[in-house]
């Protein structure tokens, strides 16, 4: 059994740390791309792409944990599950889209209403039988939104399949949800977001993250062996992966092995202090907002200071974090209160 209680082991804090580091990797990676592209070595994977992969592994792991733990309650069904996912995602998405609109307006970029609607409906990563129903591009300058849409389709299709199996809820509604949202999820079992392979197999990676939860629940690896496994797998990933090769199944396999080792190690350690845990949680608590907003802020900065160089890189990272911290206070950090309001209706 995987235990995620902070007072019993370090796993919860390690997962928070991975969330925070993944968001920072995406932010810093894009800042380098905008202001010092010469710093991107061809012999190493792009950190922003690795950050995206880590998010998908964590998502699969945590959803598997949530479904197994909460399904023990016979009253827990798809409706409650979907509301939890909605509150978690949309609490960060809505303020972030408003921020994107502001950044784009300052540089004179007009974002269409249909594009806004498509992104609110999580259509920008859609792959299915209605390809022309709404625009499929990310909203405005927020190019990274396509990954959030894929996760949303995965959440609903996996949730519908899970509760169909448990026979909780109206079968007809769950089947319709599975048929619609399963189209995009099925595409990303092997298919890509772009012709060059970007995004290939992200649902497979997500399922791998879910499988790691089941594996760690049943597998006993000694503390030292687990840490060695994590370090070895991630080191091989860094050495073997060049720029542009991040979306490959070999990388996914290495990342999953590293994750199994790291979580297995953290299940058997309890050395992160309460103060350190709280500081890690601070950075993790605005990770979604940082992910959703940083690119638009950097587009804005680049428009006014195209040759900012190293100073622009540093300022962009700091400004992106400060903006995300402020936005998260009215958005992402309110997801539990939003869920309580939705459940009370």
UniProtKB/TrEMBL annotation:
Residues 15-326 form the Acyltransferase domain. InterPro entries: Acyl_transf_3_dom, Acyltransferase_3. The chain crosses the membrane at residues 17-35, 47-67, 87-107, 145-166, 173-191, 225-241, 247-265, 310-330. It comes from the Bacteria. It holds the Pfam family Acyl_transf_3. One of its GO terms (molecular function) is acyltransferase activity. Keywords: Acyltransferase, Membrane, Transferase, Transmembrane, Transmembrane helix. PANTHER family: ACETYLTRANSFERASE (PTHR23028), ACYL_TRANSF_3 DOMAIN-CONTAINING PROTEIN (PTHR23028:SF53). This is Acyltransferase. It comes from Bradyrhizobium diversitatis. The lineage of its organism: Bacteria, Pseudomonadati, Pseudomonadota, Alphaproteobacteria, Hyphomicrobiales.
């Amino acid at each position: 059994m995987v235990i995620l209680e902070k007072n019993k082991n370090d796993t919860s804090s390690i997962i928070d740390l991975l969330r925070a580091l993944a968001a920072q990797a995406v932010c810093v990676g894009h800042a380098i791309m905008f202001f010092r592209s010469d710093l991107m070595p061809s012999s190493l994977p792009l950190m922003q792409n690795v950050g995206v992969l880590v998010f998908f592994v964590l998502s699969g792991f945590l959803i598997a944990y949530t479904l197994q733990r909460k399904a023990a309650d016979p009253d827990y069904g798809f409706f409650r599950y979907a509301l939890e996912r909605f509150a978690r995602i949309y609490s960060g998405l809505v303020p972030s889209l408003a921020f994107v609109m502001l950044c784009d307006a300052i540089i004179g970029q007009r974002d269409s209403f249909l594009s806004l609607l498509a992104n609110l409906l999580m259509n920008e990563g859609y792959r299915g039988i209605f390809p022309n129903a709404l625009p499929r591009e990310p909203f405005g300058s927020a190019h990274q939104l396509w990954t959030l849409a894929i996760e949303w389709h995965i959440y609903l299709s996996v949730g519908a399949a899970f509760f169909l199996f448990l026979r909780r809820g109206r079968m007809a509604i769950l089947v319709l949800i599975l048929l619609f949202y399963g189209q995009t999820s099925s595409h990303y079992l092997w298919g890509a977001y772009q012709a060059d392979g970007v995004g290939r197999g992200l649902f497979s990676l997500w399922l791998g993250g879910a499988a790691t939860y089941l594996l760690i629940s049943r597998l006993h690896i000694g503390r030292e062996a687990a840490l060695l496994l994590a370090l070895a797998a991630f080191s091989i990933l860094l050495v073997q992966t060049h720029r542009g090769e991040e979306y490959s199944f070999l990388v996914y396999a290495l990342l999953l092995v590293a994750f199994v080792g790291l979580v297995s190690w953290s299940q058997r350690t309890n050395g992160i202090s309460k103060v350190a845990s709280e500081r890690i949680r601070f950075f993790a608590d605005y990770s979604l907002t940082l992910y959703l907003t940083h690119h638009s802020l950097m587009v804005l900065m680049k428009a006014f200071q195209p040759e900012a160089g190293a100073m622009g890189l540093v300022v962009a990272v700091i400004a992106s974090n400060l903006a995300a911290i402020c936005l998260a206070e009215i958005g992402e950090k309110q997801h539990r209160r939003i869920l309580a309001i939705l459940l009370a209706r």
